[in-house]
Design goal:
Elements (H helix, E strand, L loop, with lengths): L26 H8 L11 H16 L5 H8 L11 H6 L15 H7 L6 H9 L3 E3 L2 E2 L12 E4 L7 E2 L4 H52 L2 H4 L8 H25 L12 H15 L9 E2 L15 E4 L4 E4 L18 H18 L8 E3 L2 E3 L3 H45 L1 H5 L4 H10 L6
Antiparallel strand pairs: 1-2, 1-3, 3-7, 4-5, 6-7, 8-9
Helix pairs in contact: 2-11, 5-6, 7-9, 7-10
């Protein structure tokens, strides 16, 4: 094989087929949109026109599900229609442009249309991993059908256009501020610890002094320890007051130390543990705002897709969307975003509607019975026999209806004749004219008519 030979294309697995437009912000898709050339449908046959339109629209609108799922779940032959004036009807695109209206009700499609995901596959991924909520409840099914007024919220840390600062300066500033706060609080804790240590040392010194004084008093002679009568003088009074003051101060110190349940030592203070406690407290004190520190991150080649459909209400401050209604045909425009015109939608609708009709089950016909036996005929003869029997049944029904009408007419004539004769002949002549009445009744009978 020569070196100039062309590579075999079918062996190379590609994400994007050449010339196919997708629901994605990627560079390949925008380039294919820029260089796209629409096919010239007039040169093709009717079948080829339907096939190409179906293929192009399926690449864009139905890339994340199979064709069978689309026909069974999301395709409907009965399309919505709104009454307009004659002028508006002339300006309306064909009703088939709303063929993909049911797809726009899917959760993954709404997430992509609201600019919370870069592609329809990424939106499906977000829904499957529980980052999307519908009316405050987590939904894990991308094919969930939304109702009018449903609220869809997406967690901000997943949205590609919202990101925390990436520059080194911003990160350093953020870390420095946090570390400064931690250092200040740790310093305050150390100072408190030192104060408590100082109080504990003072208490130990006072206790040692008291024990020394007790020992000295015990070692003295009993003669010296005998109490002598003390005469009242100003100096004696001053000595008593000083002694009471010293006792009060010692009691206050002992009370202040006894208030602490656990004595503090140098070995009990651990910097690592105290620092971990301070960090945990700081994280609890911070308000839970997911958008704090986030900013808009521009993604290249995203500008062609930055539009919001009329049936959605998007709020970027809360990362939520409200689904207002299903898309409808409007004068001079299509509400469903699509790179292809209404003629492509019309051709694709004809293609899918023919498949839908072929899949619908026809009711079973009764068996043909000839001379008491059920017979299975060829399709052509089966249709002929059924048609003849249907015509025969319709004729028999028509004859039966004519007979019923004649019977009703005869009854009416009988009633009229009896009423006429009762009024005139029976009153004047009596029972002589009974034969005449019977003759009139026989004449008006349905057999004579």
């Amino acid at each position: 094989m020569s070196s100039t030979a062309r590579p075999i294309r079918w062996k190379v697995k590609k994400i994007f087929r050449t010339g196919a437009l997708r629901m994605s912000w990627l560079r390949q898709n925008t380039l294919s949109l820029l260089n796209y050339r629409f096919p010239y449908l007039q040169r093709l046959s009717v079948y080829q026109q339907k096939w190409t339109a179906k293929q192009l629209l399926r690449d864009y609108h139905v890339p994340n599900i199979t064709e069978r799922q689309f026909i069974d779940r999301h395709f409907k032959t009965d399309l919505p229609y709104k009454l307009f004036t004659k002028k508006d009807k002339a300006l309306l695109p064909p009703i088939q442009s709303t063929m993909f209206g049911e797809l726009e009700r899917r959760v993954d499609c709404v997430v992509f249309r609201s600019h919370f995901a870069r592609s329809i596959w990424e939106a499906r991924h977000l829904v499957r991993y529980g980052h999307v909520q519908v009316n405050g409840e987590k939904s894990l099914y991308p094919a969930r059908r939304l109702e009018d007024g449903d609220i869809i919220t997406v967690s901000p840390h997943v949205i590609p256009t919202l990101k925390s600062p990436k520059t080194k300066k911003d990160r350093k500033d953020k870390a420095l501020t946090f570390n400064k706060i931690v250092a200040l609080r740790l310093k305050q804790v150390k100072e408190k610890h030192m104060e408590l240590e100082a109080k504990g040392l003072n208490r130990a010194a006072t206790e040692e002094n008291q024990t020394k004084e007790r020992k000295q008093t015990e070692q003295k002679k009993p003669e010296e320890n005998q109490e002598e009568p003390v005469k009242w003088t100003k100096s004696a009074d001053a000595k008593v007051s000083d002694a009471t003051k010293e006792n009060d101060t010692s009691k206050e110190l002992s009370d202040g130390v006894n208030e602490q349940k656990e004595p503090v030592d140098e070995s009990s203070f651990d910097e690592k543990k105290e620092k971990a406690k301070i960090v945990a407290d700081l994280l609890k004190e911070e308000p839970k705002n997911d958008l704090k520190g986030k900013h808009f991150n521009y993604i290249p080649y995203m500008s062609p897709w930055m539009f919001i459909p009329t049936y959605l209400e998007v709020d970027y401050a809360t990362c939520s969307t409200v689904f207002l209604r299903s898309p409808l045909p409007q004068p001079k425009r299509m509400e469903i975003p699509s790179p292809y015109g209404p003629t492509y939608h019309l051709l694709a609708y004809e293609w899918y509607s023919s498949i839908k009709k072929s899949q619908t089950k026809t009711p079973l016909l009764p068996q043909i019975v000839i001379s008491g036996q059920a017979v299975k005929l060829k399709p052509k003869f089966d249709q002929m026999v059924r048609r003849e029997r249907k015509n025969r049944q319709s004729k028999d029904k028509a004859v039966e209806k004519e007979i019923e009408d004649l019977q009703l007419q005869s009854l009416k004539l009988k009633y009229q004749a009896r009423s006429f004769l009762d009024q005139k002949y029976l009153t004047s002549n009596g029972p002589k004219n009974e034969k005449l009445i019977q003759d009139i009744i026989t004449i008006t009978s349905p057999s004579q008519l």
